[in-house]
Design brief:
alpha/beta, Rossmann fold, 3 domains, 5-stranded antiparallel β-sheet, 30 strands, AMP-bd_C_sf, ligase, acid-thiol ligase activity, ATP-dep_AMP-bd_enzyme
Length: 585
């Protein structure tokens, strides 16, 4: 690798052992005096350098080793806590003390946590003080573990563990635990350098800051945080997740990078458009966006800097600020209107792809604005290959193709190395011994760019035999008035075929007859313009919470189940009268 000072931490990873220990020592030892952690406390900004954070982590590791002295080294220890400035000190500290780390969602209930503990064979858990009595396992309070920062525990004899595990969302019967070792994870971090070399806006500038908005137990949140630290950037932590706090933190700390999920980005875009519509400035905004996108297509990144400074400065000053350079969406479908709006404002906004099983595998880091606006997830990053598995329904045969439409399959050295099941390590499942079947329907063009169409299990097969993708249906109706959420799902029809249904979560009271009729009017106007096989046959209105995975994407099969079994409280919109019918049959 080129000896570029911007990638100092990478050199240590490439020239030595490929372990979590090597990754840690490269990250925290390469630029010890640079700031790695930043957060607000009692109105003041607190900063820790890489050297200071290393000292905190080593004290935490020594403390954890003492607290877990009766747990054999090499065992799995679960870690359940929301992301805080000192979350990484416990994550690294557990491995440094000799324990493999099982990351679990801090929102999971006791039953699911108990399931993960049993499946992994974990012997202890680090969790919040308030959760200490919840489970029949050895429990270390997170607050006790991080107390070590105020004390010194002399222990340099650390025998590092080298595995972590991440859990998928779901129930006790569907959730799975995927394992990575240091070698696979270092390949993830190494690939980020090649992203930078391909796309200059990715390259770390001195003083770059990344917002730790995503939960660190989630693969997206963990990887982007470690990417940032590997580049020598500063990770900024939120005091809470309120929308106003997120915007204020971005401006106050001059955030350069903001990775988040489609739900967040789509809501930001909706609020911008709603504000413009209510103030009568929507035509002016649309004209400015068209001009901005044209300027950026002609002048590239210098055009983006121009529009941020002269065309949208006032709007950006009340949004994320003008320091934000990169926005990345991952974890689900982001609206094309959201992509267009945020790029139009001058932010370099792109779609990405990854999962618990494969890590972060691509971003649409393309200079070509049209490619970013297309919603592509980009092409596979270094160390990986994308292809599609195409099935012949009649012949029952399957074929791997480099382009076309089919199930996205992935191969490379950075995928998970196995699973934990029944307390045992299980070898990974690979199609033809090398390919991981993602469960997503994708289209890959001749150049290698990919687009995600839907989950295989979520595809709606209509009476005519056509495949309809729920994300595409939601896109058509994204702008419906008085709706804060639209969700497409296939419901069983009388003849056994799927009916395309749209579930609306209104932003008004269901008794607001005028608003409901306006929704019906605009829905019908959009629906009649769609191809016949894509038209929605049923509209359901409900204020009940929609089942979500990790708060990121909709659980369509669960939504389908609760609608069909009658446990989902909802009304049905009569598309002819525009009235709500009291019961959803």
């Amino acid at each position: 690798m080129q000896k570029d000072p911007r990638f100092k931490a990478f050199h240590g990873m490439c020239n030595g052992e490929q372990t979590f220990k090597a990754a840690y020592e490269s990250i925290y030892g390469s630029s010890p005096e640079r700031i790695c952690t930043r957060y607000d406390e009692n109105g003041e900004i607190i900063e820790l350098s890489f050297r200071q954070y290393d000292e905190v982590t080593r004290r935490t590791a020594g403390h954890l080793k003492a607290l877990l002295k009766d747990v054999p080294a090499g065992s799995w220890v679960a870690f359940k806590h929301d992301t805080t400035p000192y979350w990484l000190s416990v994550f690294w500290g557990l491995m440094m003390a000799g324990y493999n780390v099982l990351l679990v969602d801090f929102k999971h209930n006791d039953e699911l946590i108990g399931h993960f503990m049993k499946e992994s064979g974990a012997l202890a858990i680090v969790c919040s003080q308030k959760d200490k009595s919840m489970l029949p396992f050895k429990i270390i309070a997170y607050e006790d573990a991080t107390e070590a920062g105020a004390n010194y525990y002399e222990d340099t004899d650390f025998n590092w563990a080298d595995r972590i595990a991440l859990c998928t969302s779901g129930t006790t019967s569907t959730s799975k635990i995927f394992v990575y070792d240091g070698k696979a994870f270092i390949k993830q971090l190494q690939s980020s350098k090649l992203l930078c070399l391909k796309f200059d806006p990715f390259v770390s500038r001195k003083g770059d800051r990344v917002l730790a908005m995503l939960p660190a137990h989630h693969i997206f949140g963990l990887i982007v945080t470690l990417f940032a630290l590997t580049w020598g950037d500063t990770v900024v932590y939120l005091r809470d997740k309120a929308p106003s706090t997120i915007l204020d933190t971005c401006r106050r700390h001059e955030i350069s990078w903001l990775p988040s999920v489609p739900l967040f980005w789509n809501n930001v875009a909706k609020r911008i458009m709603l504000k413009a519509r209510q103030s009568g400035k929507l035509p002016k905004l649309e004209s400015a966006l068209k001009a901005s996108l044209l300027i950026q297509k002609v002048f590239g990144m210098s055009g983006a800097r121009f529009v941020k400074k002269f065309l949208f400065k006032n709007q950006l000053d009340s949004l994320f600020g003008t320091s934000l350079r990169i926005g990345i969406s991952g974890g689900g479908h982001v609206s094309s209107e959201t992509i267009r709006l945020l790029n139009g404002l001058g932010y370099c906004f792109m779609n990405g792809y990854g999962s618990t099983e494969v890590g972060l595998t691509s971003t649409c880091n393309e200079y070509d604005m049209d490619k970013r606006l297309s919603g592509s997830i980009g092409s596979a990053i270094a160390n990986l290959e994308y292809a599609v598995l195409v099935s012949d329904g009649e012949e029952g045969t399957e074929e791997i193709k480099r382009s076309g439409t089919g199930e996205l399959v992935i191969k490379g050295g950075m995928l998970h190395i196995g699973k934990l099941k029944g307390g045992e390590f299980v070898q990974p499942e690979r199609y033809m011994g090398v390919w991981y079947k993602s469960g997503d329907i994708a289209y890959i063009d001749k150049s290698g760019l990919a687009w995600i169409r839907s989950r295989v299990k979520d595809v709606i097969i209509t009476e005519s035999g056509e495949n309809v993708y729920p994300d595409e249906i939601e896109e058509y109706f994204q702008g419906l008035p008085h709706c804060e959420g639209v969700y497409a799902v296939g419901l069983k029809g009388k003849e056994g075929n799927d009916i395309i249904a749209l579930v609306l979560k209104p932003s008004v009271d269901s008794g607001d007859r005028e608003a409901i009729q306006k929704i019906a009017l605009e829905f019908n106007a959009i629906n009649k313009q769609l191809p016949v096989f894509k038209r929605v046959g049923r509209v359901i209105v409900s204020n009940q919470e929609i089942p979500m995975a990790n708060g990121i994407k909709i659980k369509r099969l669960k939504l389908k189940e609760i609608i069909e079994n009658g446990s989902f409280k909802c009304s049905q919109l009569n598309l002819k009268t525009g009235e709500l019918e009291p019961r959803c049959e």
